[in-house]
Amino acid sequence: MLSNDWLITTGQFKAEVSFCQNDAEIVMTNGLIKRAWRISPNAATVAFENLMTAETLIRGVKPEAMIEMNGQVFEVGGLKGQPDYAYLRKEWLDEMKSDASAFQFQGYELGATEERFAWGRNRFSDKQAAWPPPGVSLQLHFAPPGDSLAGIRLTVHYEMYDGIPLISKWLTIANNSGNRVKLKTFKSEILAIVEWESPVETPERWEYPNLHVESDYAFQGMTSKKSNRTTNWVADPDYTTQINYEYLTPALLESRPPIGPDVWIGAGESFETFRTYELIHDSTDRERMGLAQRRMYRTLSPWVTENPIIMHVLSMEPDVIKEAIDQCAEVGFEMLILSFGSGLNMEEEDPDYIAKIKQLSDYAHGKGIEIGGYSLLASRSVSPEDDIVNPQGAYYIHSPCLESHWGQQYFQKVKSFLKQSGMGVFEHDGSYPGDICESNDHPGHHGKEDSQWLQWRRITDFYKWCRSQGIYLNVPDWYFLSGSNKTGMGYREVNWSLPRERQIVIGRQNIYDGTWEKTPSMGWMFVPLTEYHGGGADATMEPLSEHLPDYEAHLINNFSAGVQAIYRGFRLFDSEATKQAVKSKVQFFQKYRAILESDIIHVRRPSGRDIDCILHVNHELPDKGLAVVYNPLDHAVSQTLKLPLYYTGLTGTATVQEQEGPSEAYALDRSCHIELHVEIAPRSATWFLIH
Q1: Given pLDDT bands bounded at 50, 70 and 90, which one contains residue 166?
Q2: Which one of 5, 380, 543, 568 has the fewest CB atoms closer than 10 angstroms to its CB?
Q3: Domain 2-119+126-300: which topology?
Q4: Do the Cβ atoms of 69 and 152 come closer than 8 Å?
Q5: Per-domain residue ranges for the chain?
Q6: CA–CA distance, 502 with 381 (Å, rounded to integer)
Q7: What is d(CA 321, CA 313) in angstroms, rounded to the nearest whole number?
Q8: What is the pTM of this model?
């Protein structure tokens, strides 16, 4: 089984496109999934299969897309005449017809995948990461029916990637009509999916089919579920033989924006939709589904693997900043951000101000430290003329419209600041949460219906520019597919005002829970070197030397999980003992960085009542695994842990070494587990290297 498992093999499952059924069908497959299209009498998806489980994903033929243009609704491609939408027989396809009122198939193009935007790699980038993700592409070209939209060309784009059961889809519209046209809205994916459950009565909560679908049109959340704005599971009106008596089974997948875009496409111009990504699962196991999702992000957004060690400084005093830079260099930190509360103004255009920042950047670079700053976008009021106009307010109560005069100037100012200051890091707080603006006076949008689309495009164009320049992006929102590097791992900010002891266990819980869908490098944690959201002396690490055990516990929590934190304050150490403690933890992380930044297997969640454990795995490394065991208790623990080693790729025997001690061989059982005896001191952690 190991040799055929796409999660622990490398170089297999290459994507390809071929023809069958006397060239009447195009087939795209990578050995894990397969999708097929009939191209006559019109183009339509007629098969979508999970080859890993030998299951069909669709139960019927739907249009390739739908658009509303110039007040008319058009289907794109598709075939009509399917007698029953409970299932789809191949024999039916030969009898199905094209809808004369739909966009008609004109031709196709095959090729390789192409990069969505430029990735400017920096010293933290994985030099081996492929960009664009290798795979194949298919373009299906369509023309409108009749003469009303003559000169419009709509293309449905697909990409399938090597080594992962993942496909993407989007639309482009080219306007060669000689007149501008209005695109009111679109559905870029419509699939009649096999239902996951078939209850007669309508349940209070439906279970959806077992595939992960998301798009780059994402915002307002630090998880994919919260930020997903385009994936809609709805009832299929064609499915009249379903069991549910109210015909409400959510077995129709639609990918569409929640509002708009309601944009004009000028003569000679083109329009591109967001991209929808469909990851097909081969299991309902939570860990395996999470591993697949994390692989998807590493494939589609390989910059998420950039994982520098970061300090946040709370001052704009040059001497304080330079001392912090010196301390970073001494202990091995790699990046410094002038934090929220520091007083940095990245909207400033004064040449003298920017020149002072440039001097600090040059100083940091001379020490081998990257430097950047913080800027607040949303959750502030700018002016009545520039703020979001909405009777229900903004998501953060107050927020500027990104297509107001202020919004357009803001991005110009920040881009100019980054170019001139030499800063290579940008922490963008608030980000754009999807606010809808009803102003008719803002220069960048004409009203409510187009406001979300154009604001999203404004901010993602900026993030893509940052990515092309190699600028590291901390964004507390789900903009990974548009170029951001990191978001919050998932924590409640006021918890950093709790007593230090409670922060430690809760912090490990946050990491454990956040890494079900995030890689360790995708989420940041927090360490309150100085007071944050209250709590006083009992919550903060300062004076660092007086609270060294708690400070070390934070360092161990984060580095042993491969996770970076916001170490926010004025300094990293205040004594030689503190300096050596920080340095030793950094050195541990740097020595085992490759395996620590690899996927986490969730062995035992922190409870505060017993030991807890995570296991890093990577079948491609010499160090196949690294298990970390934590003891939050006031007494020593002697216990046997069952470690799941399947995703290390090992079979038969594993060699295990506690820290730098002697190695011992362990036999794997039939389910690839070993039983590991652990002796661990009170309030401490230990780790085991697995070869």
Answers
A1: very high
A2: 543
A3: Beta-galactosidase; Chain A, domain 5 (2.70.98)
A4: yes
A5: 2-119+126-300, 333-350+367-483, 593-690
A6: 35
A7: 7
A8: 0.97
